Amino acid sequence: MPFDIAFIWAGIIAFAVLAYVILDGFDLGVGILFPFFPERHDRDVMMNTVAPVWDGNETWLVLGGGGLMAVFPLAYATILPALYVPIIAMLLGLIFRGVAFEYRWRTTRAQFLWNWAFAGGSMIAAFSQGMALGALVQGISVVNRAYAGHWWDWFSPFTVLTGLAVLVGYALLGATWLVMRTGGDLREKAHSIATKAAIGTVVGMAAVSIWTPFLAPSYLQRWFSWPTAAFSVIVPVLVAGCIALLIYGIRSNRDSLPFVAALGLFVLGFAGIGISFYPFIVPPSVTIWDAAAPYDSMVFLLVGAVILVPTILIYTGYAYWVFRGKMNPDEGYH
């Protein structure tokens, strides 16, 4: 084999998942914060800040899920049966909030229903993603290349904790996004929420990080054996730096810095999960190479990915560039 194509594909899918988390995370966060902004005008502005980009953000979810099915079919076939409930709940939540984007603007009498669809769908999607992540971290039972666990294995105190941590973390992304993109009273209220959400996010990350090594001794071993031990020092230092920037940005009333620092926390948290998992794609027993499709299939798909991923990056970057700056309440994207 001329090069490790399974490893390359694992990197592509990991990148797609990370892109989805940090991009769709803030627009899910905007929906999570809907109940804290009862005024219709504020809700209109909040929704308009994400209206031009929310559906493009979800492209990365399709790429990650489709890539997993095509390139790592064994992982797809074992992860889905283990996580059917949270994944279906997530998809239903995304459907409700997606429909709310269209119908909320077309009714006055029933607008409250679509407000709750948008907020509730965002909360359910975020919490379900956190629970699915927690279930993956705590391990999936695989015997003879098939899922061997029980129907409720995805539900545990740890997965509830990870669900809440992701929910609060997305709320932080949403609040800092609103600080960056809005002004006036809406921005000030989002600024206040960002402070509380930052505390909750840091506490949630710390709790998950402390609990994780007790789930499996292999996690502790990977973090403190060479070469991953180097990251055991680097990642916490970078996390502390992001927390310091986040606090500084909030206290100094900066617009963009808190959002960038919050994104940094998510990237570093994702890196920590990657260090804990590697080389497994389905902990604790299925490696990247165990789950990989035939070599020729991966090469064929890689040709498409080399074209598709840069294209998505270009049009995503262009969309964010066109709709940059503060949202003007007297104008709209919808």
Question: Your description of this structure?
Answer:
This protein is mostly helical and about 325 residues long. The protein has one domain (about 20-320): Formate dehydrogenase/DMSO reductase fold, CATH 1.20.1630. Helices cover about 75% and strands about 5% of the residues. The chain is built from 14 helices and 4 strands. The protein has helices at about 5-30, 40-50, 55, 60-70, 75-80, 85-105, 110-140, 155-180, 185-210, 215-225, 230-250, 255-275, 290, 295-320, and strands at about 140-145, 145, 280, 285. The strands form 2 sheets. It has a two-stranded antiparallel ribbon with strand order 1-2. A hairpin with a 3-residue loop joins strand 3 (about 280) and strand 4 (about 285). Helix 7 (about 110-140) crosses helix 8 (about 155-180) and helix 11 runs antiparallel to helix 12. The radius of gyration is 20 Å and the shape is globular. It starts with a helix and ends in a 12-residue tail after the last helix.
